[in-house]
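Handoff note, outgoing to incoming analyst
You'll be picking up this chain. Sequence as last confirmed:
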Amino acid sequence: MVKKIISCAAAAVVACAAFAANPLITKEGYLNVSFTTAQMQQYAADAQVYMNGEIEKILQVPAGQKTFDNTIAAFERALGEYHDRTQFLSLGAHILTDAQQRKTALDIGAAVKKYRLDIFTKKDLYAALAQAAKSLKGKEDYVAKKVLVEFEKNGMSLDDKNLKKFISLKKQLIDLETSYDEVLSASKASITLKPSELAGLSSTMIASMARDKAGNYVLDITPRSTYFAFLASSELDEKRKEAEKNYQELGGKKNLDTLDKMLKIRQEIAKMFGFENASDYILQDKMARNYDTAAAFSADLVSKMQIKAAYENDEFLKIKRALTKKPAAIALTDWDWRFYSDKYKKRQLSIDDEKIKEYFPTDYVTDKMLNLFGNLFGVKFERVDIPVWHKDVMPYAVKENDKVVGYIYMDTVPREGKYTHAECDDVIIYRENPDGTRQIPVAVLVSNAAPAAGGIPSLLSTTELGTLFHEFGHGINFLFNRAPYSGLTSSLVWDFVEVPSKQM
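Most recent structure output, in case you need it:
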C-alpha cells in the first residue's frame, strides 16, 4: 500500500510537470497549429491523464474538508483545462487540410465525448461535489447547481444496472453520431451543366466552376451558400430539381439508417428517465421544460406567419404561371420557391441580390466588421502574422490598451474537406486562475463565402453577410465574457446561447 501511494504521488508530480503548458497554445496565447497525426493522438491522451489526476485529487479531499474551492471550483478549472487541450483537436475534423488528420480529429472528438460521459457518470465524484455544494450562496451556488445538474441528467438517480445500460446506450449514440458526421463530411453534391444550360447564373458562379473533359461546367453545390445561390438563379427547372435532389441526398441511405438508430436510442434513454419522449428529456432544464410548451410556441409562431406566407406564395405562383406559361400551376416545389422569391424581389421590390453582392467583398466586410465592433467594445482587432492551418485563414489579435486580450481566426473561404456550413468555436476559454492570472480566450470562426474566381473577389450575399455577423456574435461572447469560471463562459445557459448572435 505504501509503495502504491508513493507511486501515485510520483505520478502526480510527473503529471504536473508534463502539464505545465498546453501544447496547443503558444506562450503568446495564440494557437499552435503545427502537429502530426501522432501528436494529435498523444495530446488527447495526455489531456485525459491530466483530467484523471485532477479528479483523483478531488476524491482524496477528506469529507470534512471539502469546500467550494477545493472541490467544485477545482473540478470546473480542470474541466476547462481539459476542454482547452482537446477542443481545437476535435474542431480539426472541420478545418484541417490533411484528410488523415481530419479523420483523427473526428475520432478524438468521439473519444472526448465518451470520456466526458465517463466523468459525469461517476457516482463517487458526484457525491463529493454534492457534499461541497451544501449551504452555498450567490455565484458559487449557481456554479455548483450547474455542475450537479449535468451529473443528474447522466443518470445519478439510476441504479447501477440501469446506469451501466445508460452509459452503453450513450456510447452507441456517440458512435452513430460520429459515423453520421464522417459519412456526411465525405459526401459531395454537384451539378453538371452544358454551356447551353447556364441561363440565369451569375458571371461569378460561372467563373468558379470546374470543367470536365467534355467541356461541360461542374458546380460543387456541397457548400450550402452555393446550393442556395444556384436554386435562386438557374432558369432551368429540371436543373434546379436535379440540384435539389443531389443536395438532399448528401449522406445517402447509410445516414438515413444511422439517423433511425439514433432516434430509437434517444427515445430509449428518455424512457429510462421516466420521460414520454426524447424532447422532454432534453428540455427538462431549459426554459420550455417540455415538448408540449415548445410545440405550442412553434405553432403560435406559424399561425402568426401564415397570412404573410400565403400572400407571398400567391405572388410567387403568379410569376411561375407567367414564366412557365402554365396558368393552372397551383403549387411551388421545393426547388421553386428560392427561384421565384428572387424573381419577386427583382420585379416587385427592385432588389437584385447579385448586384448587392458587389458592395460586400468578403475581405472588405471582415475588416469593416472588426473595426465596427472594435469601436463599439473599445478594443482593436489587429491582423497578425502567426501560423495558420490554411493560407486563406485570417488571424487577428484582440487588443485592449495595447494589451492582447484574445485571438480570433477567420476561416471564411470554402475548400476541399472543410465544413460546409458556418460555426464559431471557443477553442480556448477565458477563465480566472487561482494564482490571479487570466486565460486569454481564442475563437475560431468558420464560414463559406463564394471563393474568388475569374478576377472577381469573394463576395457576400446579404444572407451570407448576416451569417458572418451572426457567427461573429458568438465570437464576441467567447472573447469578452469575463465570467470567472470556464463553465459560465463556454457552457452558457442554452436558452441564452444565441442571444449575442442576434444582437450582432
